[in-house]
Amino acid sequence: MAKTALIYTFVIMEANQLESQVFITAEMELGEGPLWHPVESCWYWVDIYQGKLHKADAAGNHLSSFAFDKKLGFALPASEEQFVCGLEDGLAVFSMSTGKTSYLANINHEANGNRFNDGKTDPTGRVWGGTMNVDESTRYGNLYTWEHQKLRSHLSQLGVSNGLGWSPDHRTFYHIDSPRRTITAYGFDAVSGSLEEASNVIHVPESMGFPDGMAVDNEGMLWVAHWDGYAVRCWDPESGKVLHEIQVPAPRVTSCAFGGADGKTLLITTARTGLSKEELMKYPQSGSLFVAHLNVGGMPCTLAKH
């Protein structure tokens, strides 16, 4: 029987205010895809427009960068030296030891101007990746998994397929469509990778900007980066209320991820793209990485299967 989706449109304005600190000063055009590598115990993130994969240790020392000749939406670790990457034209495996990229699948069947955007692995290591169109007013985006050597479509007609995550019990999948300002919960079957109908939807108010990337904590709360919202906000998916707000001195907050030695550090990425000279003067740390130290940890990154 189909479930009726519950729609939440209210927030608590007295959200607990938290602060962020600069982790690495940078000038990324579109910083995204942060993650804590479960084997190497270090941070990785991408600059989508510059096509770069960056690496840093837990103390914020930048260790290395890897350049691609295409836009790089996400890079998910498959081992100590391999990543499954969502490039602008397809899904590929990148070897850090050889520098070579081998394609798994292309997205030539999608609309002109589509590219991979955000992606993650689910608790079983299944790769999930969403697409978007350069014309963000269209709904040409899709959400895929890579299974059995082919792409499997789960959601379509998306504006910008963005943040995604799973509840601690692995029974709920969360997905953000940025232009719609929605955070949608779906029932999830970890064995088959199938999604059920939406169970509830949070509509983010225009005053908070656009929901972008997301991380889920061990208590099931959703930490959502807000593009043009100057913050990461912690949403309760059951009530639709904002519990905490991490202020970031940059308008375009793009994503976040839990990690660090105790798993309670939240790494936050930001962007410079589209900001005016005046905005960049007012917010010169746009494009840098920030951290917030929290009292809760997050769901660990699972190595990607390909």
How would you characterize this protein structure?
The strands form six sheets. The chain has a five-stranded mixed beta sheet, with no helix packed on it. The chain is globular. It has a single domain, classed as 6 Propeller (Neuraminidase), CATH 2.120.10.30. It has one helix and 26 strands. By secondary structure, the chain is an all-beta fold. The longest helix is centred in the C-terminal third of the chain and has 6 residues, at 277-282. A hairpin with a 2-residue loop joins strand 9 (82-87) and strand 10.
Strand content: over 45%
Percent of residues in helices comes to under 10%
- Shape, principal axes of CA atoms: globular
CATH class division: Mainly Beta
So, the CATH homologous superfamily?
A: TolB, C-terminal domain
Mean pLDDT: 94
Write down how many β-strands occur, each being a DSSP E stretch of 2 or more residues: 26
CATH topology: Neuraminidase
Q: Ranges with pLDDT <50 over ≥5 residues?
A: none
Distance between the termini: 34 Å
Which structural class matches the secondary elements? mainly beta
Write down the domain tally. Answer: 1
Radius of gyration: 18 Å
* H/E topology pattern: EEEEEEEEEEEEEEEEEEEEEEEEEHE
Concise summary:
It holds the Pfam family SGL. Residues 30-272 form the SMP-30/Gluconolactonase/LRE-like region domain. 2% of the residues lie in helices and 53% in strands.
